[in-house]
Amino acid sequence: MSTSQPIRYLFAIARPSHRIAVRRPFTTSTCLHARPPPKHKSIKASDLGLVTENETKQRVSAKDLRPYSEEEKSALSKRYTPEQITAIEAGEAAIDPQDLAEQGAVREDAMRLTYLDDFSYIHPVVDKPVRAPEENYDPNLRFKTEDELADDLTEWVKNMPDDPERLDWMKFMDNTRLTVGKEEAERNPPSSLSPEIPKLDILKPKGSQGEEIEPSLQRLMRQTGFDAREIARFRVKNLVVHRVVNQTRLGKIDSMYYLAVAGNGKGLLGIGEGKSAEAGEARVQARNSAIRNMQPIPMYEGRTIFGDVKGKVSASEVELMTRPPGV
Fold first, then answer.
1. Could you give the dihedral angle defined by the CA atoms of residues 22, 27, 33 and 36, in that order, rounded to the nearest 10 degrees?
2. Is the whole model's pTM more than 0.85, yes or no?
């Protein structure tokens, strides 16, 4: 017998019996220290002159924010009063030009907001709701009795004009109080409940005049908030198309399967599936599902991804690689 075998057993016993846990990454991409060095040097597209000035969006400097000239003041005087012009100049003088240059730039990335707000009015969904003060609360507030309501009606009939109109009755119904106590407690009562979210017009189906919108498209427009023109401009590509068979007690039932990918070319990407007996209906289901599942993807310079990504599910492997400008 070899003497190395008992010694090997002794070393095996000296090792710890527990297994060291390996930290697993949250994504399927390779760790940064294990990635190979990039093959191409990182070059901005703006340095090569491959993008327009609007796409590079230069940042405004504090030197560009100069005072109003005489011509600009004369143009403002046609629309505003001298007091308003003085208030505008005082308000702009109170703000540091460097803050305007750094924080006043319009964002062009995929995570930007879809609207510009000048804070001239209160938005019922985004802004904090304006609530009534707690001083409006009246603990002794009660409803009027039938006799008190009858007295109010009798008083209105006595003071009614000779030729009453329907508008007079509507004003009486709107201005008549139904409670006894503080008027603010009835007109503007304090509440801890959140205000009702109003219905947005952007969720309503929009189509050209005389055009009939399909029910499936209307449902997709309500779910995503896009109108018919925006949905038509999305890029949709069918990746997998094949026939599937479902075995039932009545026999084999054939269906068509579609796997589609949709995007807008500006950072939104989605994948969807569809299956139906008709090929056209399955294709529409896959397209709508892909548009419904679109998610924002961070893009480098608005043209490519930030790094290489590898993924594997069963026997399928996918690799996405970032590319330099012009490729």
1. 130
2. no
